[in-house]
Write a structure and sequence with these properties.
The complex is a heterodimer. Chain A is built from eight helices and 13 strands. Chain A is an alpha+beta fold. The longest helix of chain B is centred in the N-terminal third of the chain and has 23 residues. Chain B starts with 9 loop residues before the first helix and ends with a helix. Classes of the chains: A alpha+beta, B mainly alpha.
Amino acid sequence: MPEMAELERSLDLLREAIEWPGTPPLAGRITARIATPAPTPRAWFQSRWALAATVVLLAVAALIAYTPSRDAIAGWINLHTGITRVNHLPTPTPQPSGPLGKRLGLGDPTTLAAARAKVGWKVVVPASLGQPDEVYFQVDAPAGEVNLVYKSRPGMKVSGQTGVAVLITEVSGRVDTNYFGKMLGQGTTIEDVTVNGHKGWWISGEPHEFFFADANGNFRSETLRLATNTLVIDDNGTIIRIEGDLTRAQALEIAASLS
Amino acid sequence: MHPMEGRPTDGDLFTRAQRGDKAAYEDIVRRYQDVAFRTAYVITGSSADAEDAAQEGFVKAYRALATFRTGAEPRPWLLRIVANEARNRARSAGRRHQLELRLAERFRPGDAAPSPEAAAVAAEDRSRLLAHVNGLSQEDRQVIASRYFLELSGEETAAALGIPEGTVKSRLSRALTRLRERVEESPRA
């Protein structure tokens, strides 16, 4: 058997001998592509760049001046979600067709009992909604991620973004792990809330953008999508995200009934 | 590029691009287009698909610049986006290509002008080793190509292959073991 070190040396030597197909002249083409405005929000942004820049500065100034938002954002950055206030939202990733789990990147279908057996934390269910209609387990998350789907419930609209009434995502793991990223445009507000003694944030108004981060806290581009009103509760290591076309009161009631 | 002003760092270019400087983004693309295209080629096995994936990936990354964290490493961030495009193409029905890495002509045995025997043997060895790499499973071939031929870091390989960084090491170790077995099973002619 050749020594492993010898094999690795041979592979290193092979590198210079490999013939790669010629790299196409991408830079010029990409510059041409990005000069073309993307769909609506971007067209607005590009045609009024100076105005948009001013709006961002004002928004940043307002966030710095306004204590609850500043605290909320500082909290997000240090805990599980990077949050960015942007003047335009990037183009969301086209959602793949197919079943809900694939479309929203929720993972593989499973049962509540099986999901509970896979993770090392307590998966909670809101008593106010009852048992979920579907459960998914996402193995890509650093310590696993459980998604509970409620297709419809009386008095709750089906969200245009998810196609279901309520989507609850639960993740847990290291306190310093970044799980989610959010980008809020100017029409979205963020507000501090407290649920059963836990810190939370209620993000509402115009749809914002949401994406998952990988184990290193990096953006997972395939998951960038629009999200509707969302309540996020953070319990130092466990984070619960409740998304739906809900009122603040409905979201808080769901959160308060989690057990 | 303005050589007189020195080469801007990746961080400078990203900051400028995030502020809407398209020329800075063009510089970023120039800096990374080779590694991005080749990474996409390793994943798709097709230069046409790799070209599409790299182009779409760079456009998508531009639109998502707001999600790039200041201070983060730009290469894995870009490679992840491009590689994700490449994987989507590789998965699409009817677009299954087998990656086949080739030796440059001057390194091919028999193609070069008569050479000293030592060089001829080295050429045979290279050719044989590459044939064994090409004969591995797609997973094994991709991890070896990423680490040894593209010289990606562990983090970049994880981003390119869409696997956790911790998995890269174990996958590479298994791939090397299997490659070594193949080399061993096929004695020199």
